[in-house]
Every structure is written in structure tokens, then in C-alpha cells.
Amino acid sequence: MDRRELARALSSAEKITAPPRPREPWLVLGVTGSPGVGKSCLVDRIVSNWLERGEKVAILAIDPSSPVSGGALLGDRMRMASVDAGENVFFRSIATRNLPGGLPARLNRMVDLLVHEGWNRIIIETVGSGQSEIRIVAVADRLLLVEGPARGDVIQAEKAGVLELADLIVVNKSDLEGADRVADEIRLSLNLSENEPAPVILCSAETGDGIDALISTIDSLPAARGPAIARARERLLATHQESLLSHPEFSDVLKSFSEGDISIEDALNILQRG
């Protein structure tokens, strides 16, 4: 399908019937991190590199929903020059619709469709706050965590538990004071874990320093890190959420429950029927 048809199909994800993609070799890179650490600028660098190698790259930017229209705010597109680089790049902003988990429903189906249509590199950039930092492992094959020079970013990642799930950690803005210290603190924290520590790389999306090393490390990422049970839990929860939201009676049940006509137990019983 052409790009316009693909955009329309992604907007009606409930109708997507593409076959499930293989998980290996890995194709989908999740990028997460606190707001302001430079995720979009870093993604722009990665995409530009892949495009120079002839890859077909699709980017799904998970944006906050507009309180007025409910659609995506499109902030990430404004910060990415590579999205206008030609036919081998496809960009789509996806609104969260304020769903639990911070990711839109049926995101897995969208990715399956992109793979089916021949896009061999896919990046999903999260909003970068709350549960979305964890839930992204339900969809992404590999997870890149972006940190900044401020220690508060690392504390947030530790609280969210995303450090132990990340396959690669990047301290962006290495040209700013404090970046080396943050990288050392992350390495120390990872060394206290029982798992093999993820690589920690310093780079600057602004100056380009360290980008080649970052790309090389991404290309050579081994099997997904982190506890398998944690990844499996997020995939199970995401699938269950999608199943509930896709139920043909969901809207009616939600209305009845909100008006007090049925109990939460009744609502769940209805939605769990086939």
C-alpha cells in the first residue's frame, strides 16, 4: 500500500489483519526516557544514519493527546529533520488517548502492519513518563533508555524499574556538565544488579559526538536483556487491555458502569465473555 493508505490503515488499527511479526531478528527499537533528555533529536540522528545505509525506517512517535481534539500534539515531528528525507522514511504521531500504560491500544498491530509492508527498521518513541517507560517492552524488541546530565532523570528511571529492562542506556547531551558523572552513576547502579549490565554510552545529538559508537552498539545488540518474566508480564497486560478495549460492548458497558447501572464485577463479566 502507498503511504497515504498506510497512514489511513494505522488510524483504523482495529481493522488491521497483518500477520504477527517475528521477534528475531529484531526490527523494533523502543526509545524512552524522561521529557527533555533529547530523545527526539537522538532518534533523528539514528534515523539519518539508517537512511544513509539504505534502510526503510518507520517512526511511531507516541505523543500526548490534545485535550481539545484528542489527537496527537505532533511535537516530535517538529524536532526531526529526517522525517522529510524521502520515500524511505515514514513518520506517524500516535495519540495516547490517555489510555492506561501510556501507549495507544493496538500498537502491536500497527507495528505488525509496518513490518508486513516492508519497513525493516521501526522506532517507537514514548512520551517518556510514568508506566509507558515500562509498557514499551510489550511491543519493542530492544529498548534504548535515554538519560540526561541531571541526576533526577536517573532517579526517575530507577523508580520506574526501566534501568533493568533497558538493552542500551545513552547519556545524551555529553557536551554539558555532569554527563560523565551521570554515566558513572548508572554503571555503578547496574553493577549492583544480578543481571549482565547494559552498555552505557555517552553522546551528544547536538554535536554528533559519540553517535557512530551508538549506532554500532545498536547494530550489535544481543538477545533482549532484563528479566523475561517482566517482559512477559507487560506483553500479557498489553494484550489483555487491547482485548477489553476491542470488545464490541465496551462503550455500552463503560456507560452503564459510569452511570451506576452495573457493578464493576458485572462489567468485567460482560467484557470477559467471548
Could you please describe the fold and organization of this structure?
- With 274 residues, the chain is of the alpha/beta class.
- It folds into two domains: 3-226, P-loop containing nucleotide triphosphate hydrolases (Rossmann fold, 3-Layer(aba) Sandwich); 228-274, no CATH class.
- It is 39% helix and 14% strand.
- It contains eleven helices and seven strands.
- It has helices spanning 3-11, 39-52, 75-78, 107-116, 132-135, 151-160, 179-191, 211-219, 228-245, 250-258, 264-271, and strands spanning 28-32, 57-63, 89-95, 121-125, 142-147, 168-171, 200-202.
- Strands 3-2-4-1-5-6-7 form a seven-stranded parallel sheet, with helices on both faces.
- β6, α7 and β7 (200-202) form a beta-alpha-beta unit.
- α10 packs antiparallel against α11 (264-271).
Report the mean per-residue pLDDT as an integer.
82
Detail the poorly predicted runs.
66-73
What would you say the CATH architecture of the largest domain is? 3-Layer(aba) Sandwich
Percent in strands:
5-15%
Number of helices: 11
* Broad CATH class of the largest domain: Alpha Beta
CATH superfamily of the largest domain: P-loop containing nucleotide triphosphate hydrolases
Total of domains = 2
Strand order of the largest sheet: 3-2-4-1-5-6-7
Q: What composes the largest sheet? A: 7 strands, parallel
Which overall shape is indicated by the principal axes computed on the Cα atoms?
globular
Encode the helix/strand succession as letters. Answer: HEHEHEHEHEHEHEHHHH
Secondary-structure content class: alpha/beta
Q: Say how many strands there are.
A: 7
Specify the helix fraction band. Answer: 25-40%
Terminal Cα span: 32 Å
Q: State Rg.
A: 19 Å
CATH topology (fold) name of the largest domain: Rossmann fold
